[in-house]
Amino acid sequence: MREAGNIAEVARLQPDYMGFIFYERSPRFAGGLMPEALSVLPAETLRVGVFVNAEKDYILRQAARYRLDLLQLHGDETPAACAALKKSGYGIIKAFGVQSAADFGATHRYEEACAYFLFDAKTPQRGGSGKKFDHRLLASYSGKTPFFLSGGIAPEDTATVAALRLPRCAAVDINSRFESSPGVKNAAEVGRFIEAVRE
Description:
This protein starts with a helix and ends with a helix. A seven-stranded parallel beta sheet has the order 1-2-3-4-5-6-7, with helices on one face. The chain is built from five helices and nine strands; from the N terminus they run αββαβαβββαβββα. It has helices at 4-11, 56-65, 79-87, 158-162, 187-198; strands at residues 17-21, 46-51, 70-73, 91-98, 116-121, 147-149, 169-172, 179-181, 184-185. It is α/β, with parallel strands linked by helices.
């Protein structure tokens, strides 16, 4: 999210999380967003900052400015880097691209440093590709860390996602396929998705 009016519109749907991208190469870069725009969020909606190979000082500055709850790391961050940010008092979400079951092996070294993993389609991009991966692969994930399911989830996938039975799935991350333009969500479609999944 990056537009104040759209943030207010989606906030009324009471999402569990709302994400803000602090990666300058992203068309969804939220660096110009005024922190006051987040004041409309319900207390229960956790604020997630998304970063890609950013310096620790930059991450902590943005986290303090926007009062972030969780830091989602989409780059080549090491387990040590994740652990250092965790010690600063933030929940850490580490993203992993998935193309085959073997890709889950990369998560083992991050178990102690992260509150959640995020499984996305493996692409040359750093997320936001709108690409799906085969969700049947998730049956091969044997780690103890809960995960966010991501990767090209669209409004027409609502029933399929709602029917998934994945015990360690903590959240469903929707982004580009629910947008009218980069960073601007179609609130009606988001609302229908939230209602169906929560039911």
